[in-house]
Amino acid sequence: MTAPDFRNRRVRRGLLVAMGCTVLLWAGRGAAQDVATGFNLYGVPGLVEMPTAETTPDATISNTLATVGGDLRATLRFQITPRLSAAFRYVAIEGFRPDDWTAPRYYDRSFDLRYRILTEGPRRPAVLIGLQDFVGTALYGGEYLVATKAVAPGLRVTGGVGWGRFGGRGAFGSTGERPAFSELLGEGGVPTHDRWFRGDVAAFGGLAWSPSRRLTFKAEYSSDDYEEERRAGDFDGASPWNVGLDYRFDNGTQLSLYHAYGTELGAQVTLHFNPRTTGTPGGLEPASYPVAVRPRESARDLGWTEDREAAGAARRTLAELMARDDLVLEGLSLEARRATVRLRNPTYGAVPQAIGRTARAMTRALPPSVEEFVIVPVERGMETSAVTLRRGDLERLETAAAAEMRARAEIADGWRRAPAPAPDLHPRLDWSIGPYVQLGVFDPDNPARADLGARGALAYHLRPGLVLSGAVTKKLGGTLDSVTRDGESGLPYVRTDRRLYAARGDPAIEHLTLARFGRPARDLYTRVTAGYLETMYAGLSGELLWKPVDSRTALGAELNLVQPRAFTQGFGLRDRDTPGGTIPRLNGHLSLYHAFGDGFHARIDAGRYLAGDWGMTVALDREFPNGWRVGAYATVTDAPFEAFGEGSFDKGIRLTVPLSAVANRPSRVTNTVTIQSLTRDGGARLNLRDRLYETVRDNHGPDLAASWGRFWR
User: Fold this and answer.
1) Which residue among 43, 183, 267, 688 is least crowded, i.e. fewest CB within 10 A of its CB?
2) Within 13 Å of residue 693, how many CA atoms lie on the same side as its CB?
């Protein structure tokens, strides 16, 4: 598999046709985001190549595919907050050969950050500061301060000053020496802070005129002289003036045509999507039962307590009602004034929706004297929280906003609050069959590889908290086994041999484990897992989590004892000796978790990684009440950057998609796509399932509050 020749007319014509078809298909999608901001060839708000001070609505995800002068640029951008945005870009440059580079194409990754300092007012412009390609080789590295202002209906003017790529033409000053691109070549992934806002300073600017909502004409003066492309490539652009035309569809999708550098034509498509405004997950599920309002004075009737059959009848009725909502009544404790339910929720990603449906079923199944409802959600047999509701509140507030019920609900630790599970619920077998995709990206020899196949999985719940689970995969096709790069870090080969697993493990036992989950004390959770832990390692894993039910902060500890599996991914194991050294038996981490609010979740893991290197992983994710999640992480260890190889250290971005958003039916299943550097040995961790924090936190106070709006759904 080779990268396309972008200078070939047939390839470029095919690319433009594909871009046009993509636009036409996307233009009809209601889920896309209506964005009026124009995007440039670098996939950020801008003119043709120069940036503007414009932003997009909070949480907008923008995907841009652009081609100009035979080069291809793909950009993924996220509006992190109303003022702050970030972008990841991957480019293929034809005929660019810096230093000893001999391949026909040069592949480069870059990251951008932009922060809006001032919003536009009646008299003042919007002002924004930006860092372009601020880590790594910084081929496109540059910093800028830019202002944009509407000066007439449909007419916006932009002006700015820049350094690096933005200071290459017509410099009017300097702020010191700036390291050259050649000095950073080979250090991909390293922040280039010693270059920021240093070197020659030049001005750029332009204007955008929109005679209608759909159409925008652009013209700019570019301060980028393309010094590196002239030195190490065949760039011969002569003009600093670029012009372009944007056409915008009803949902904000942008199709653009450009004339750049005086000699080249370009084309671009930009697609927008906002997980924050895609609506709530599900939507096609049947409505639940209405609240059954008790007759006046019936709450005082305790005659049922003398009837030996009453409790059993209530339990059967409640189980039937909950089953119609795809919920499981695992246990019921019934008293004269209080009922406690042990709830298993296999269906609803928003836990308050399961709690609300359970509460309404309780109003219909339980005797009128029962005023207090205590609902205890369980995960992997562990009682996670206890939500206490008043029956009278349910009767009065059914037509009120969900926030009214939240204000009256009490949320406490579920430790020792749940009734014993019914004996006929275990053992239980769950199974599934579906497709799988494994990705391998950013290898300079081939920037995109993937395997596609089928996966069969099962989970046998022997008793509450004791689960035997496994999965088998069958590869149907792919190219992950074609990786040729060996380890370059001097570390044991803990992930470098992934290609051998991909080549020889077909079919493969993906995992086969016995896991025990427990609650040893208030605020504490435990997990012990033994067996074939993941595709490459077997062993024993233990975890302890401290997480108060009302706290935004949690602490965890994990310790693993591992042995590498045979490449065939059957039942065999292999020796720990590799060309890079011996794989240590022990690894583990201490973890700190914190939810900042507005959906932002941070995690810091510090400890020993699979290859024996010591370091830290920092991750930040933004999660939305409908289940979508966008995040990024970076891992730095004592493995030297120059020895790590391509990318310098492990890092990546990820997008979690809830199945309910695609199927329009409630589901707890999610799929996470991770875009990360080429798999290396430094900073590698076990790929374990059911880590405790993600298992229990949905049932705790902060997360319940975030999705409580679905209580009455």
Assistant:
1) 183
2) 22
What tokens were used for 438?
């494994």
Residue 81 one-letter amino acid? T
Q: How far apart are CA 525 and CA 382, in angstroms?
A: 8
Q: In whole angstroms, what is the distance from residue 588 CA to residue 590 CA? A: 7
Mean per-residue pLDDT over the chain, rounded: 87
Region label for 170, one of left (φ > 0), alpha (ψ between -120 and 50) or beta (otherwise): left
Residue 646: the pLDDT is: 56
Q: Which secondary-structure segment (H or E) carries 398?
A: none
Per the CB < 8 A criterion, the answer to whether 472 and 455 are in contact is yes
Lowest model confidence (mean pLDDT) among 99-108, 207-216, 478-487, 623-632:
478-487
CA–CA gap between residue 163 and residue 469 (Å, rounded)? 55
Q: Peptide bond preceding 520: is omega within 30 degrees of 0, i.e. cis?
A: no
What secondary structure letter does DSSP report for 194? T
| Spatial distance between the Cα atoms of 387 and 167, rounded to a whole number of angstroms | 60
Identify the pLDDT of residue 184. 55
Measure the CA–CA gap between 354 and 388, rounded to whole angstroms.
14
Per-residue confidence band for 442, with pLDDT thresholds at 50, 70 and 90:
low
Q: Which two tokens stand for residue 40?
A: 């440039």
- The predicted pLDDT at position 24 comes to 37
Res. 486: pLDDT tops 60:
no
What is the three-class DSSP state of 360?
Answer: helix
CB 45 within 8 A of CB 56: yes
Q: Residue 236 and residue 212: Cα distance in Å, rounded? A: 35
Of residues 454 and 297, more confidence is placed in 454
Ranges of H-type helices in 79-235: 181-184, 227-232
Task: List 89's β-bridge partners, or say none.
Answer: 75, 110
3-state per-residue secondary structure call for 349-373: CCHHHHHHHHHHHHHHHCCCCCCEE
Q: How far is CA 195 from CA 183, 249, 519, in A?
A: 11, 39, 52
Cα radius of gyration rounded to whole Å, the chain: 29
Residue 50 makes CB contacts below 8 A (sequence gap 6+) with 40, 146, 158, 160, 166, 204, 205, 206, 220, 221, 222, 223, 224
The CA–CA distances, whole Å, from 558 to 356, 461, 640 equal 35, 23, 25
What's the token pair of residue 615?
A: 């370091």
Phi-psi domain of 489 (left: phi exceeds 0; alpha: psi -120 through 50; beta: other)? alpha
CB 491 within 8 A of CB 497: no
State the amino acid at position 102 in one-letter form: T
User: In the block, which residue shows the tokens 């049947």?
Assistant: 286
d(CA 284, CA 288): 12
For residue 10, what pLDDT is reported? 40
DSSP helix/strand/coil, 696: helix
* CB distance 676 to 684 below 8 Å: no
Q: What is the pLDDT of residue 500?
A: 87
Q: What are 599-647's pLDDT values in tens digits?
A: 999 999 999 999 999 999 999 999 998 889 999 999 989 887 665 655 5
Is the entire prediction scored with pTM above 0.70? Answer: yes
Give the separation between CA 335 and CA 374, rounded to whole angstroms: 11
DSSP string, 413-435: E-TTTSPPPPGGG-SEEEEEEEE
- Rounded Cα–Cα distance for residues 640 and 678 (Å): 16
Mean pLDDT of 404-412: 96
Lowest mean pLDDT among 2-16, 125-139, 228-242, 600-614: 2-16
Q: DSSP string spanning 238-260?
A: --SEEEEEEEE-TT--EEEEEEE
Which residue would you say has higher pLDDT here, 546 or 26? 546
Length of the chain in residues, anyone?
Answer: 713
d(CA 561, CA 584): 9
Query: Is residue 4 very low, low, confident or very high in pLDDT (cuts 50, 70, 90)?
Result: very low
Mode of pairing for the β-strands spanning 105-118 and 372-379: unpaired
Judged by DSSP in three states, 134 sits in: coil
Locate all alpha helices (DSSP H) within 4-134, ordered by sequence: 9-27
Q: Report the C-alpha gap between 382 and 518 in whole angstroms.
A: 6
pLDDT for res 6: 37
